[in-house]
Specification:
By secondary structure, the protein is α+β, with helices and mostly antiparallel strands. Helices cover 30% and strands 20% of the residues. The chain is built from 6 helices and 6 strands; from the N terminus they run βαβαββαααββα. The strands form 2 sheets. A 4-stranded antiparallel beta sheet has the order 3-4-6-5. The chain has a two-stranded parallel sheet with strand order 1-2. Strand 5 and strand 6 form a beta hairpin. The chain is globular and about 50 Å long. The mean pLDDT is 90.
Length: 161
């Protein structure tokens, strides 16, 4: 309510439903969508809950240790994820049906220090595709498909683009 008092067009929502019961989360998210539609708002929704991301987002930015690794519309992220971290992140989503067994790929390696990161790609120490270049140079964001951007030196060869 305080965020709406000044009639903003843009609201940053940092984990707005993370501490709530699932049924309450759904009610709050639906209320937020109604408010968004009625007041023509844009939300920047920060969360680790991928089901909330899928429900609330039109466009998604995936970050790893403070760096953007992938940006695209929601459907592209969930269907055609391209960055190795985005792939691992979405493969970690629990599947409710026991018969739908999915081969999960666990990330290995050490997490780079978020306080004093080494040069190069922050995901390199955990990436199966990392080469010497990844440890030396930070990858630049590039458009790999229309409105789908990825920050990875090897995204084209990894995904056969």
């Amino acid at each position: 309510a305080r965020a709406l008092a000044m009639n903003p067009k843009f609201i940053v929502c940092d984990e707005p439903v993370s501490a709530l019961d699932v049924s309450i989360q759904a009610q709050i998210l639906n209320l937020m969508q109604d408010i968004q539609d009625n007041l023509d708002l844009t939300y920047m929704f920060i969360t680790h809950d991928l089901s909330v991301v899928k429900h609330m987002s039109d466009n998604i930015i995936v970050m790893y240790l403070g760096k953007v690794v992938e940006y695209a519309i929601k459907d592209d992220i969930f269907k055609d994820r391209l960055h190795p971290y985005t792939k691992a992140l979405l493969e970690a989503i629990p599947i409710p049906e026991a018969r739908d067994k999915v081969e999960r790929k666990l990330l290995k390696g050490e997490i780079t220090s978020p306080i004093n990161p080494k040069k190069g790609c922050r995901f390199a120490s955990r990436c199966d595709y990392a080469t010497k270049l990844c440890f030396e140079k930070d990858p630049e964001m590039m458009e790999t498909m229309q409105n789908h951007f990825v920050s990875c030196h090897h995204v084209i060869e990894i995904n056969g683009l």
